[in-house]
Amino acid sequence: MSEEKSRADALKEELFLDFKNAALRMESDEVAEADRYCGGYKDFITRCKTERETVSYVADLAEKAGFRPLKKGSACRAGDKILLNNRGKALILAVIGEKDLSEGVRIAAAHIDAPRLDMKPSPLYEDSDLALLKTHYYGGIKKYQWTAVPLSIHGVIVKKNGETVTVSIGEKEGEPRFVVNDLLPHLDGEMRKRNASEAIKGEELNILVGSRPFRSDKGSELVKLQILKLLNEKFGIIEEDFLSAELEAVPAYPAVDIGFDASLIGAYGHDDRVCAYPCVTALLACGKPLYTTLAVLSDKEETGSDGNTGLASSFLADFIGDFAADSGFSTREVLRHSSCLSADVNAAFDPTFPSVHDKLNAAYINKGIVLTKYTGARGKSGTSDASAEFTGHIRKVFNDAGVIWQTGELGKVDEGGGGTVAKYIANLGVDTIDVGVPVLSMHSPFEVVSKLDVYMTHKAVLAFYSA
User: Pairing state of beta strands 369-372 and 431-436?
Assistant: First the structure.
């Protein structure tokens, strides 16, 4: 009997699929390395609250590592490091490999925009002696989560004279914060009757920015006048300059460890900067790769990837075309032999809300980077659906490199769904599959990820670049 049981256990070990907790599979020194790596990530995610700040941070790292813009007309050589800064809101880093470009490139692509509150073109107004800013939310949010949360304001203002002013208020110690007010439970009887999606309406996401009037005059809108006076003194702007501004309100708190064991990271903007950071660190660590490698950081994914900084545009294909032409190859020739990891997060299984997941096909915290063959909604609409051959290739790459990985779908069939940038790159003729970090409380102002999963994403992308 015991012999039969041991034979069954051995056969199960050989035949069953079992994604075990990474902490049980990693050596203690690698766990320590993962914690160390995530110290750098926490600094990154704390400092990079917007796509512009992310591009600035990464471009600075890259330039210090020797990356330079492509010089037109000069052929690329193995080891060359190339940088494309697309309008300060998207970025491509490339390291030229040993093999000819005609054999394709290796792309890891992530988006660096995140759900937030954008200021309207004419945002500032006064009501009942309070000054507020009107907003238009960006991306998919639960609007009620953005009330009674300390906010900071980031972005740029292009002044009437053409000068660009960079704005960041609310992140440093001693700086003021901002807030969207909520209604007290004693008076919210009518609000409680609303559906959850309308508990707070879009036009109610107004940010409180001041309450003291301009003292040396009489009349209306003196609180608004005082706020404009302060902004004029600090930034040299007038109200009309809001019309040519990009101002974003985001949560004003740093990344922190979560749990008694400090095994998790809580922060704003994990989706998708938690995948962007490993794409960059892996590229900086890959040395002289066999194939030309690219880290692509794109904008606008949360609103459909449209626009000239989103991956529905031609900026990636144009970049490849530029250095391919200088090396004597066509863009089509390079792209059809290329492969891509679309690095984007997946929804981690939450035992508090189990009904939205198929437990056999869900992603789990601490089980490594998630391999997602397809995303989309309902009948797989809006997805590229990676081939069996390419999925098998990536499995082998990860296994050979000792990467801890798992598979996962974005919830049950017909439960909802979502998309990534994968389809836009696949549409160029590139073999593409989604991979990424599982996230709890995705799209909220405070998302949670596992340190081991973040580190495994770095290790996975590095393995892909090196394969």
Answer: antiparallel
**CA dihedral angle for residue 308, residue 309, residue 312, residue 314, rounded to 10 degrees:** 60
In this prediction, residue 88 carries a pLDDT of: 96
Query: How would DSSP label each residue in 7-60?
Result: HHHHHHHHHS-----HHHHS-HHHHHHHHHHHHHHHHHHHH--SHHHHHHHHHH
Upper half-sphere CA count for residue 185 (Cβ side, 13 Å)? 0
What Å distances lie between residue 160 and 168, 233, 364, CA to CA? 20, 16, 51
DSSP, collapsed to helix, strand or coil, labels residue 212 as coil
DSSP code for 355: G
**pLDDT value at residue 255:** 98
The tokens for 72 are: 């037109």
How high is the pLDDT of residue 419? 85
Domains in the chain, ordered, with CATH?
11-114+268-466 (3.40.630.10), 116-251 (2.30.250.10)
From residue 281, how far is each of 196, 275, 371, 459 by CA, in Å? 40, 10, 20, 10
What's the predicted TM-score (pTM) here?
0.95
> For the chain, which residues score pLDDT lower than 70?
1-5, 73, 217
Task: Give the separation between CA 298 and CA 112, rounded to whole angstroms.
Answer: 6
d(CA 33, CA 256): 18
Beta strands at 438-439 and 346-347: parallel, antiparallel or unpaired: parallel
- Predicted confidence (pLDDT) per residue in 345-375, tens digit: 999 999 999 999 999 999 999 999 999 999 8
Distances (CA, A) of 77 to 37, 99, 263, 336: 31, 10, 42, 21
Cα separation of 270 and 443, whole Å? 9
- Is the CB of residue 421 less than 8 Å from the CB of residue 342? yes
Q: What pLDDT is recorded for position 13?
A: 84
